[in-house]
Structures are given as C-alpha cells and as structure tokens.
Amino acid sequence: MQFKGAWEGSFVKYIYELYDFFDLEPAKIIINKHEKQKNEIRAAKTRDGKKIIIYFPFAEEINVGIDLSAYDFTVINLSEKQFGKPRIVCTPEESSFRMPDFNSDGLYIGVLRS
Predict the structure, then answer these.
(1) Taking 90 as the threshold, does the pLDDT of residue 1 lie above it?
(2) How many other CB atoms are there within 10 angstroms of residue 38's CB atom?
(3) Which of 2, 21, 56, 105 would suit a FRET pair with 62, their CA atoms being 20 to 30 Å apart?
C-alpha cells in the first residue's frame, strides 16, 4: 500500500518547520502583466519581513514589485522535491525570477541576510 499524499503533507510540514513559516501573511508583490499569472502565483512574507515565500503553479518568469537583493533565495521543485538556487535580477524598484529549469509547480523561499 502506498500513501503518496502523506508524504506530500509531511514535506510541506518539513518546509514550514525548517523556515519557521508560522507567521506568514499574504504579500501583494507580484507584478506580472497577465491577470492569470497574477491570480495563480501566490506570495507571502513573515510579519517582520525577514522571510518571503512565492508559490508558482508552473514554470515562468516572475516579477515582483520590490528589491530582493538583500535576500538569499532557494527554489524548490515540488514535484521532484529538489532544491536549487534561482536566477534573480534585481533593481531598486523590482526583481525578476528567471524561468526555472523544471516545468512543474514550485516555491521560491527567501531569507533576509543578517
């Protein structure tokens, strides 16, 4: 018997505990031009602003309306549970996550450098 759903739930729990994401609040920072992209991509941050998480349902370039150059980011391929470093271009007004090398849903997780 296989319980794949239980592994999915435990992986999400692992990520939340690893990054201490228990005080996340929605963040309206996505500025992609297409309405569908804005509606499907989700962003949240901790109350103190030291951590940011962005969920994307498929691979695409994502633009946000803040400078993320002070954060260290990890990208997670959720279908394969693989971790990596995303390609990000930052300016003082906005940041752009380049398209990841996988075609599934994923997470960008950013932690403010101390």
Answers:
(1) no
(2) 14
(3) 21
Q: Is 91 exposed, middle or buried (0-12, 13-18, 19+ CB in 10 A)?
A: exposed
Q: What is the pTM of this model?
A: 0.91
Report the run of H or E that residue 41 belongs to, with start and end. none
DSSP secondary structure letter of residue 48: T
| Level-2 CATH architecture, domain 4-112 | Sandwich (2.60)
Distance CA 108, CA 112 (A): 13
**Does the pLDDT value for residue 4 go beyond 50?**
yes
- Residue 39's region, left for phi above 0, alpha for psi from -120 to 50, else beta, is alpha
Looking at the chain, list the stretches that DSSP marks H as alpha helix, in order from N- to C-terminal side: 4-19, 35-40
Q: Measured between alpha carbons, how far is residue 111 from residues 19, 36, 52, 74, 99 in Å?
A: 9, 27, 7, 9, 20
